[in-house]
Design a protein that fits this description.
This protein is of the alpha/beta class. It has 13 helices and 11 strands. It binds zinc ion.
Amino acid sequence: MAIQILSREKKSKKVDFSQFLNGVPARDYVFQSAPYEQQIREAAQLLERADAVLIGAGAGLSTAAGLNYGGKRFTDNFREFIEKYGSAYMTDMYSAGFYPFPSEEAKWGYWSKHAWLNRVEPPAMPLYQTVFELVKEKPHFVLTTNVDHQFWKAGFADENIFATQGDYGEIQCARGCHDKVYDGTGLFHRMNLTRKDCLVPTELVPRCPVCGGKMAMHLRCDQYFVEDEHWNEAAARYGAFLKEHKTDKVVLLELGVGFNTPTIIRFPFEQMVRENRDWALIRLNLDEAVVPESFGSRAVGINDDIARSLEDIRREAGGVEEKEGLSIEKAGEKDEE
Ligand SMILES: [Zn+2]
């Protein structure tokens, strides 16, 4: 089952999508030629007609939402880290996390800042709220590799979210000696207040309450990632959602999923569309919105800024609702006369 594969997923190196053009799983990838406006209308219609919506969200969604890992947002916030560790590693928040920090004080010095900036401090980003507005009236479920907690902040219920790769707000035993994760936000707050020269005080370095060893962020970066009770419940709910809506019209709304870990969302989504003739795919991606040509009208791949296309889809879908609302109101007035 897909879920069993998920739990063994390892972070692979980023590959260019063109490497998949001549191979499995999608040998017929195309950039669709329909004009942008037509694609927006088609996407809105698919969502209108859907019985249920399955959202698949990757890093591109958070980037489009404004949680950018590079550029000025990185250099403004991590100036002292760049100066201390050098600009070769410290190019953006993704690469910086892989720096071989020489001590636990240095490791937590970095991660407490990273987690604070991307998980604790930001409110619900408007783009995530737009996603919620789009789907909240229908049965929906979110499968995401994002670890910034934005779906919860935007209003999605915990029971409708499966965040497969962890959460910046949690920590775990670095060796995964027991299947439990711990809230790290209070600790990160104290670390932020006491960090000096990129280091946290030794007394704040967390230790595993079971084996006494090192702790780590609850992120899937090695074989020690902890799949706790909550993770397993979410995985089961995801499986149940797929089963429950097997014969319904389901729209798979894929947002910002590239080719970094395509076996978690991208390829399974394509397979599900292949296997269920009433299911359709809406793929929004800044530059990798290629879709299997064989899906025909069951796929809309919009190669554009996700913030722009989602807002346009919402407006298009909302426009239909408003018109319907008006006509009902007028009918009501007539009845009164
Ligand atoms: Zn332990």
